[in-house]
Amino acid sequence: MKILKLFVVSIFIVVFFVAFILYFQEKEQKIKISEIPKKIVKVVNEKVPGGKITEAEKEMDKGKVVYDIDVVKGNKRYEVEVYEDGTIKEFKALGEEEEEEMEGEIEYNFDKEKPHTIPSGWKNEFTGRGKLGKWEILEDETAPSKPNVLAQTSMENFGYHFNLAILENSSYKDLELSVKFKGVKGNEDRGGGPVWRYIDRNNYYIARANPLENNFRVYKVVNGNRRQMDSKSLKVTSNEWHTIKIRMVGDKIECYYDGVKYLEVKDSTFKKAGKIGLWTKADAYTYFDDLEVEEIK
To answer: I need a labelling partner for 69 at 20 to 30 A (CA). Which of 45, 103, 210, 273 fits?
Structure first.
């Protein structure tokens, strides 16, 4: 009798355990955009040409893996559900939405943008003297994600002049921000880097690498005045792709160049969320690609 009871209890435990596993397999699991398989990204891009993936979830449906992808194109939102083999399960147009601030995780590779224009949602600005630079989409066969890059191509400004490309509806406080750049040319200056906690064209943080000076620096621009906070001398090559990554939580700023942390400072000048963007100085002719930002909560 005891053996029978033990057998029944064992069966009950096994059934409960299997049901428990199946329950959690069926639940949606949020994943990073970078974790979406290339096959799925291709299907989504073909379904919504020119759209930008904003969120992704992975779930099980009757034993099959399904990717639930949210896409924004202009002011319209779409949901694309795709099986692991690339078959579309469901496609829904979710209608129009207001111009909301961008938060969470964003990736830009600029490959769906129109050549020789600044991408939709980006604004051309500058700090200092002179006139607006020129930000435009160009093709580059060396781009980390082919074919396009976002380039600052004006070489007409000199001296105290900072070119800015700002992602208008972005809003981040604590974040991890990275971008790949290639310093193509420039006699007075070369290279560039990312901007964050941008309040306006005269107030923001910026980290940049300069092939002419062979250094990596982090600054804050306050009321139009640039103030250096930390610097590291290192080899920065022209016409080669490099990566700058920023991590800021609270007042702590960490700056990485090609995967190595070189700079670390604390500063509380800009305490609130701000926009993100890209920066070059004077006549720096610079390419950018694979901009990624993730909110840290």
So the answer is: 273
